[in-house]
Each structure stands twice: as C-alpha cells, then as structure tokens.
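Protein in question quoted in full.
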Amino acid sequence: MTTNPAATGPSVRSTVHGYPRIGPDRELKRAIESYWKDAITAQELEAIAFGLREDVYARLRRAGVDEIPSNTFSYYDQVLDTAVLFDLVPERFDSPEPADGADERLRRYFALARGEQGAPPLEMTKWFDTNYHYLVPELSPSSRPRLVGDKPVREFREATEAGYHTRPVLVGPLTFLLLAKAATQAPEGWEPIGLLDDLLDAYVELLGDLRAVGATEVQLDEPILTTDEGRAAVGHLERAYRRLGEATDRPSLLVSTYFGSIGPDALRVLKDSRVEAVGLDLVTDSEGTRDLVAISGLGSTGLVAGVVDGRNVWRTDPPAAVAESGTLLALTEELRVGTSCSLLHVPIDLEVETSLAPELRATLAFAEQKTREVALLGRVLSEGADTELQGISGPKDVSFTDARVRARLDALGTDAYQRPQDRNVPLSGRLTTTTIGSFPQTSELRRARAAHRRGELPTEEYEALMRAEIDRVIALQEEIGLDVLVHGEPERNDMVQYFAERLKGYATTENGWVQSYGSRCVRPPILFGDVSRPEPMTVEWITYAQSRTDKPVKGMLTGPVTMLAWSFVRTDQPLGETARQVGLALRDEVADLERAGIRHIQVDEAALRESLPLRAAQRPRYLEWAVASFRLATSGVAPTTTIHTHMCYSEFNEIIGGIEALDADVTSVEAARSRMELVEELGGRGYGRGIGPGVYDIHSPRVPSVEEIEASLRHAVSHVDPAKLWVNPDCGLKTRGYAEVEQALRNMVEAARRVRADLSGH
C-alpha cells in the first residue's frame, strides 16, 4: 500500500479547471439550435443554460471536489465571450444598447460566430492542439478594450445564490491577445499585444467587480505559455501580472497553464509576481516538475498540480498520482490537486456506456469519474486517508495487440511510402468544381440510421433509403454542374466514428459526446488496440454512386492523423506507430476503391495542423510520422489515380512543408474565413500541386453571392496557376440545410464559370 507523504503536512485541496457544459444529454445543443429556429425565446434559452450550470456545480459537489469553478459555461466559445465582455468586436457587428435585452445581445453574439447578411463571422480555428474550436478576435489600433459585460459576475452571483462558492475562470489577457489577429485595416506590422495595457485596465476593473460580489479567487487561463510564442513573451507576462498583482482591490489570482510545460522563465516570473497560485499540467509534459526544481520551488506561491488527465479517457493511477503529488509538497507551501486542463475535452459519464467491453471499461474514466479521482487524491493527501487506496490500483495492464498487424508493418519496404513521380492524374480543366464530401444530414437520414442501429429498420429498407439519397445527391450535383462529384455520405454519422465502427482496435460510445464548437458535438471513439480492417468499409456505397453518373465520383476516407486526433488514443506505444497501423488499414481500402474503378480518392487529414506540437522543437518528429502514415495509406495507387486530401480550420502556414510532403495531387483547405491567406503563401512558394481553397464558409448559414465567391476566386487566380486551382466550399456540408447548400453551390459554379470564361478570353 502506498503511504501518504502528506499525512501530517499541510492541507491539500482538490479542484478542476472546468467541466463539460453541453449537458448529459446535449441539452445545450438542442436549446441553442431551437433558439436559432425561433422555437424558443431568449429567456427560455437562458433558463436552460442556468439549469445546466447548476447541474455542473451539483455534480462537482457530489463528487467531493473542494473548489468549484464558475464562468466556464459558454453558448459558443470562451474566447468569443471574452471579446464581447471587453467590447473587442469588429465594427461590422452593431453594438446593442443595454436596453435592447437578451434577444438583441444573443443575436449579436451568435452573429459574431455564425455571421449574418453583410457581416461575415469571425475566423474560426483550433484551440491549441485540441479538436475544440475558438473564434479568433479581430483587433486593430482603434480597438478600445473596456468592460461592458457582466457575465463572470452574474454567474458567480448566481452560483452563490444557489449555495456554491465558486472560483470564476477567465481567459488570461496574454492568451487572449496572442491568439487574436490583426484586422485587415490594421497597419502592417501592428500586433494585438499592443493593446495589453488598456486590456489590463479592463481586467483590473473586472477583478474589482468580482471581489465586490464575494469572489475570493479568480482563475486566469494562460495556456499560451506552453507555446514558443508564449515563452518568448515573458516580458509581456511580467508586465501583465505585475499590473494585475498590484491591483489593490482584487481576489487572489490563480494563473492556470495547460497543454504542456511553460518553462522555468515563465515560472520564475509568476513566482516573483504577486500571483497567489499557479496551475501546471503535469500530464501532457513531464517538464513541469523539473522546472519547479530548477527554480527551487514556488515558495509561498501555491500550486495546482494537474495530475489527472483532462484530455484523455484513461483512468488515473491513484497510488502513483499520490506519490507524485507528495513530492511537490516540498516545492510549495500550498498544494491543490486537480485536472491537467478543463474536462471540456472528455465525455461526461462512463456509467451510461453499458455496451463497452468490461476489460476496456475497466481502464476508462470520463469527466464524472475524473472528478472523483481528483477528490480522492485530495482526501488521501490532506487527511491521510490511505485506506481509500486499498484495492485501488492503476489502470489494468491489458494487452490489445495483434501479431499479424505488427508483422505486416515490419515487412514493409521504403517503396510502400513512395508514389511514382511521373503521374498522369486526370483533371477537368481550369477551376475544377467539387465539394469536400458530405451533403446535408437530414433528420430523416439520422432517424433511419438510428432505427437501423437499434434493429428497428431492416437492413434492406435502410440500404434502399441510403441509395435513394445518393441518387438525389448525384442528380443534384449533375444539375448544378459540378465537375467531380461525391456520394454525399448519407450512411455516415461522423467522419471518424464511421470508420472506427469498422476497424478492429477501436471502440465507440453511445453517449460520449464532446463539444467541438458552438452547438456542434462529436463522439470521439476510443483507439485502444492494434488497428486493422476486417472488410471493405466504403467501396459498396462509392461504386453505387459512380454507377449513377458518367462524371467522376470521389472515394472518401479519413486519414490516419485525423483518426488519431479525433479519438481518445492509447498511450502505451508511440503515436507514430499507432498512425502507421491506421495507415496500413486505409491502404487496403484505397486499393479496393481503385480496383472498383474509382479514380479520385480523398483521404482527409483535417487535423494535420491541429495536432502539430505546440513547441517547434517537437514538430519535425511529428511531421515525419504524420506524413509517413498518410503516404503509407495513399502510395499504392496507379499514376492515373488522383489522391485528394482536405484540412479544416487551422493556421496552415506553419506546415506548408508538411502539406507538400504528403504528396497529394489536390489539397482542399479552409480559406474563406482567413481571407485566402494560405493561397498567397502557396503562390509565393511556387506550389506545384492542385489546391482547393474553400471559397465560402459552410459553418455560417449565410449564402454567399456569386460576386463574393467570384472575388475570392479572382484573388486565388492571381496567386495560383488556374489549371491547378480547384473550386470548393471550405468543409463538408452535413450541418447545413439543402435550401442554402443548393443556392450556395449554384453561386459557386456560376462564379467559377465567369472566371473561367475570362481566363479563356471569352
């Protein structure tokens, strides 16, 4: 039995950085979408949100967590909340008057996220290296940070009235500004960090307001410190927390960092400031403890030790976590144990997952279980409650290996990763039009899939419905005039889950929902063992679609990096090895598609950029195995087969070399919200392959005009050879309705026709 090193030492408390906000049955998603459809009022939406917040507080208290956070709720995204809170909103969005009420405030808020006619939305990108998205603030020298909202105060007061004393959580000023981007009207070379002093004044005012309503501690999230950019901003960090620390009327400050190590320089700055506590992620990066030792501990500055993984679903090893936490007691005078980051990134409750295999289930913990792990660690360290560890061991050592898979990988030669350079892939001419893959997922399709899964809809009837939808999608694309078609993916619930359900080594959940952005939720599968493909996964549907048209139809697969990034992945072997296993399984599917006569095959790597390590020193190794796994999946095709890939919302400039190394014939990327920035970069590099910059934003219900798309295409043509330019939306269309999709695609095809005509001279 592990003994407690703190049995007679200082009190150790437990906490979490945040908790999922979507509700146990995705109540927030349904409420927001009902509000968008005018099915409920703003007041009804706010009442549902209040109930969800109160449920989180109650869950944390029942679990035994000592300190409960507040202001972790959001209707869409915490960075957007911060921009609205401090009035850092682009001028194209009208500012509501205070008297306008909840309806007008929510209209403007959702317009920032989704856009409205005449006002495109804020750019969306990934939150560090997670699959969560945030809205990128647009700032300029004319931006004037000022406190205009009261959301953190209101939610703190609300929790207090319900009987919960909470710790309000805010996005830290450094993280907010370093994640923001300069607006188009900003002078060249100007950076948002130039607003730091004014923004700090607004934070000081907010801290005073929180103190006035009874808050005793406020958490300021600064994950930017785990990046190279954040580490280089130590001077700004020192200035920021000197200013906040010297505020005379404020609560205690906890500066929370996560997703990696912040390094000894930033730690030293925080230690020497008047900040009362620092939170470190001791799961993602083991440097944290070494950094503490390097600066001789934190002394009077408290430590929140993130020893329970907030991003993955594997159980904590309580005895090992107690031992690790015990060593930290010598480095700080005040220790709290907690999660490595917010539990926003994991499903809510394992108990509702009754179909998981018992041997796998025994290794797992979701948010509800992780809060109990945190509370247990706090009790053991604080009270010497070692008896609670009796009978508890670390995650069971269960082997999920497949000797056949490993032997196949060992037998591969270097030629398995190389395509012939003298390729003769077919193109349809200048400005080839296509879509990314999915078409709208109607309620009828979702009901049919659910009924079939429950055994209530016979397979013959289900397949007939899917074929009818494919017929509809093919006919619509032909009538609109698209050049390369897709089958619409009516049979797929999700681009990762669909394949996970058909690959050995994966498990899927029934209710393991995680927020991706706004009302969008996904169910990440669990990659627990060696991966292989028992049988073809897509060939039947794609070949049926191809039989319905003379135009080429793309085969649609999800790439190995994305299959890992959007899953909860085993930690008992290097990620690169797991990715190669997925790549080998996909290679078999690609070969079968090609044998079936499919000459365009798209292997989506939507997550290639988001999985890029936050530290530059770790990126070459990542790109090496990421590129190798993609090439393993795609390099077995004939010279006449076109390999496509697609990438989602991300800052791509940092991985252009990796994109080129994938050796795909056509790469489609998000470009609408980022104003075609990547096209300019690719043009400057002389990029020689096909590129499909998204010409309109599918995450907004706006239908772009022909002229708007035409302007984007003309900009792209000025940087990229038109013969290599493909025309497509920036992502799949599954979340949109048919009415808006049909009109938007018609406008896209017409814009391409106009530009193509000009290029041809008539």
